[in-house]
């Protein structure tokens, strides 16, 4: 290390700062806590309703009728286990490398841990290290830092004495001694991410629809449950008779049968299962889903904001080509220039551009050559030089001059140090500006024949090396940000799917626009590029402009959030990708936040989706999986809401006519499993790429009403007429059991009708599935244990005839409702629309 005059903090001063709490430690939770995950999955409205119903049934001693309560355990368990698994993966991703830093204390250098740094410490920042805390540079020896994680700017920044450096940036070359000015939660990065730490639950259209139903049922269930209990008590002879005979228990069970039937518990369970399965499938493709509900949001995304660095590009630099200048175009000389370029880049610690040149030329067969002397690259000089002994002449022969000096550096700097050739240099700069405008990083190679002056220039130990003014420009070197090979293909997929993509970056808008053209962001159309400094600060004004903009450069973190807000004003469902701390606010504000696996911990913590291997190409599969979930869930949700409709209708009919409840909770469990639950799970996993359209609940209700009304009327009409026809006394246990067994058969057949309607077209495996579950229901009735457990009775004799007549009537009612109810519903909606 260079010698310095400062002694740094003493041991006592360090102890005082530790006692005062000015230590470089941040209480940073990288993801949701276990307690938050458990609370969110346990304390739900659905769990509360089902638990209350289960407790009521268990209080009667009829545990067989309480099996519906297991759905709470299964549903809650799925949510907790899946989100805990995501948390563990995220926490592993977020663990920072436990680096030690070289700190100058008591006049000597000591290695300490990141958390051991205190306020006012003198810290050495070495090439390759992440800056551990905000600091002011005391002395710099060519320090260059990458601040892209904080600013989005992909170019490295040269730092000199008096400049500030921020935690989260990375030293890419050089060395500096810095004095710490802010630690822990007071640092720039911690301050920037503080706004993003508050957890915000993903809004799920599906769960919102289910919760709307549950809230409605909450207001309906309590009074209806009371009325059902009263009606069932009257049906068995009143309060005193029910209490004396113990039939109050049956009254409670019957009431719960009506309540449970109205709650789409299977839909809630299937939603969790489907989200969990989608999350597991995505995990196989290195895509981590932190919140199950975000799977649904994937289906609704119609606007995708992409951060350039880390998403479109991988953050690295790629060597493109050497362009020989007009006076130096010669095949052999081009090879010599390429070899010189390799040797110029082949330093002990090459910077990012040097590494890119070495990799690019290495793939073309170049390797290290003989270098007599070297002047390493300096960010202060902005050029490097080598002396090659025995270099050949322009024709490529080895019998040329004894030695040559080659220079590589920033074109404007190198040309400024050469003898002014007026128009020639101006032409070169114009060429440089053209390539820079296309998004390239441009370097200039110059060559000088060895002279006395040049020999002094090339000395590596010279205090202040200078360019040989007689050197001649030879070639331009073009480098660019390394674009992910899958970027163009992925963006084409989104265009085909109708998803509007924009690139939002902190980098130069010219550079970002050039990259957008290379990856064909807008297809054949030229992308519209703007500088964020020209945009208004008001979201309302911005939303009028944003529709026509494809690329925005020089974007600050708060502006990224503002852009997301403006897109929300235009009713877009916005997804935002990113990897830097500067992306955290926008990722949190977006409907769906997507972080790269190499992202800053704070960014991954607020994202709903993490692409673990940082591959942009996973996004089409992510969106397709979300569409599959939502399209299929809409298909099967109708199955569950049919049960809600007919249960509400039957409960209302029972209360009004004071009849015994027509079936038991265990009947609903058996029938629901065979005609709703298991078939729905199979249908939910079927391939489906339909884009999700808002209005899930309205479409599902319109589907559910015909089947629900038909089933409810069939059960009620049978309950009102069959006892009179058959001469049954429903106050007698045996006759009531026969009636309920018949009603269970009617429910089952109507359930098969509804299943067949949902599964259309009934070709191939769909038709076979309906037949299999219909047969399973009949076979189950023939198995003694199943029949006893679920209180199923196979009708015989006159009961069989009555059941068949009831089924014919039910089919007729179903057919009428199938055509009449949708027409009536459509007419009502039309009248409301035109008011």
From TrEMBL:
Localization per Swiss-Prot or TrEMBL: Cell membrane
Membrane topology type: Multi-pass membrane protein
Keywords for this protein: Membrane, Translocase, Transmembrane, Transmembrane helix
GO molecular function: ATP binding; ATP hydrolysis activity
PROSITE patterns for the chain: ATPASE_E1_E2 (PS00154)
UniProt cross-references to PANTHER family, sorted A to Z: CALCIUM-TRANSPORTING ATPASE (PTHR42861)
Protein name: Haloacid dehalogenase
The organism of origin for this protein: Bifidobacterium callitrichos
């Amino acid at each position: 290390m260079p010698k310095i005059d400062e002694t740094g903090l003493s041991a006592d001063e360090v102890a005082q700062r530790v006692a005062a709490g000015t230590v470089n430690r941040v209480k940073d939770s990288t993801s949701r806590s276990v307690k938050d995950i458990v609370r969110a999955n346990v304390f739900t409205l659905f769990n509360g309703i089902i638990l209350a119903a289960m407790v009521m049934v268990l209080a009667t001693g009829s545990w067989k009728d309480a099996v519906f309560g297991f759905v709470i355990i299964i549903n809650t368990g799925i949510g907790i286990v899946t989100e805990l698994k995501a948390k563990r993966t995220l926490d592993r991703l977020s663990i920072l490398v436990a680096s030690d830093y070289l700190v100058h204390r008591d006049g000597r250098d000591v290695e300490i841990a990141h958390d051991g740094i205190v306020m006012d410490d003198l810290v050495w920042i070495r090439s390759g290290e992440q800056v551990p805390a905000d600091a002011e540079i005391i002395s710099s020896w060519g320090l260059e830092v990458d601040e892209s994680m904080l600013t989005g700017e992909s170019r490295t920044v040269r730092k000199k004495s008096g400049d500030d450096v921020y935690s989260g940036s990375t030293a890419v070359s050089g060395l500096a001694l810095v004095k710490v000015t802010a630690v822990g939660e007071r640092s720039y990065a911690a301050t920037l991410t503080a706004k993003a730490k508050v957890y915000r639950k993903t809004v799920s259209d599906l769960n919102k629809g289910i919760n709307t139903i549950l809230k409605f049922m909450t207001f309906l269930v309590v009074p209806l449950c009371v009325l059902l209990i009263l009606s069932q008590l009257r049906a068995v002879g009143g309060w005193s008779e029910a209490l004396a005979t113990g039939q109050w228990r049956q009254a409670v069970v019957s009431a719960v049968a009506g309540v449970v039937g109205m709650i789409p518990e299977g839909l809630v369970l299937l939603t969790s299962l489907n989200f969990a399965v989608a999350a597991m499938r995505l995990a196989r493709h290195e895509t981590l889903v932190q919140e199950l509900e975000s799977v649904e949001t994937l289906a609704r995304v119609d606007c995708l904001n992409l951060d350039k660095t880390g998403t479109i590009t991988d953050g690295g630099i790629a060597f493109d080509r050497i362009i020989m200048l007009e006076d130096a175009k010669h095949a052999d000389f081009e090879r010599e220039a390429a070899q010189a370029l390799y040797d110029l880049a082949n330093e002990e610690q090459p910077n990012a551009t040097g590494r890119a040149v070495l990799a690019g030329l290495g793939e073309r067969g170049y390797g290290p050559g003989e270098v007599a002397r070297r002047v390493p690259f300096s960010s202060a000089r902005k050029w490097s030089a080598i002396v090659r002994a025995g270099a050949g002449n322009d024709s490529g022969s080895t019998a040329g001059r004894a030695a040559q000096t080659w220079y590589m550096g920033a074109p404007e700097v190198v040309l400024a140090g050469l003898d002014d050739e007026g128009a020639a240099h101006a032409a070169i700069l114009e060429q440089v500006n053209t390539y820079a405008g296309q998004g390239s990083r441009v370097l200039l190679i110059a060559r000088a024949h060895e002279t006395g002056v040049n020999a002094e220039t090339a000395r590596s130990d010279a205090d202040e090396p200078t360019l040989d003014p007689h050197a001649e420009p030879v070639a331009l070197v073009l480098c660019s940000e390394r674009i992910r090979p899958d970027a163009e293909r992925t963006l084409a997929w989104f265009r085909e799917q109708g998803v509007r993509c924009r690139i939002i970056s902190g980098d130069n808008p010219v550079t970002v626009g050039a990259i957008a053209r290379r990856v064909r962001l807008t297809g054949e159309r030229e992308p519209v590029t703007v500088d964020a400094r020209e945009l208004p600060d008001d979201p309302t004004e911005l939303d009028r402009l944003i529709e026509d903009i494809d690329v925005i450069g020089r974007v600050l973190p708060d502006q990224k959030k503002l852009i997301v807000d403006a897109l929300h004003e235009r009713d877009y469902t916005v997804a935002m990708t990113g990897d830097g701390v500067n992306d955290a606010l926008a990722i949190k504000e977006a409907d769906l936040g997507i972080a790269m696996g190499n992202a800053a911990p704070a960014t991954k913590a607020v994202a709903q989706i993490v692409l673990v291997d940082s591959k942009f190409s996973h996004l089409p599969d992510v969106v397709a999986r979300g569409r599959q979930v939502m399209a299929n869930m809409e298909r099967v949700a109708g199955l569950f809401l049919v049960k809600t409709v007919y249960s509400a209708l039957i409960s209302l009919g029972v209360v009004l006519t004071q009849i015994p409840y027509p079936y038991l909770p265990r009947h609903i469990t058996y029938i629901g499993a065979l005609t709703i639950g298991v078939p729905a799970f199979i249908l939910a996993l079927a391939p489906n790429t339909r884009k999700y359209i808002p209005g899930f609940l309205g479409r599902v209700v319109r589907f559910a009403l015909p089947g629900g009304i038909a089933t409810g009327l069939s059960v009620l009409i049978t309950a009102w007429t069959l006892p009179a026809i058959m001469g049954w006394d429903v106050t007698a246990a045996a006759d009531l059991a026969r009636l309920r067994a018949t009603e269970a058969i009617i429910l089952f057949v109507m359930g098969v009708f509804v299943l067949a309607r949902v599964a259309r077209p009934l070709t191939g495996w769909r038709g076979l599935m309906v037949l299999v579950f219909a047969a399973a229901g009949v076979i189950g009735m023939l198995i003694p244990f199943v029949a006893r457990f679920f209180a199923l009775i196979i009708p015989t004799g006159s009961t069989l005839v009555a059941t068949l007549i009831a089924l014919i009537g039910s089919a007729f009612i179903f057919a009428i409702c199938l055509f009449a109810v949708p027409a009536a519903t459509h007419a009502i909606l039309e009248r409301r629309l035109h008011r």
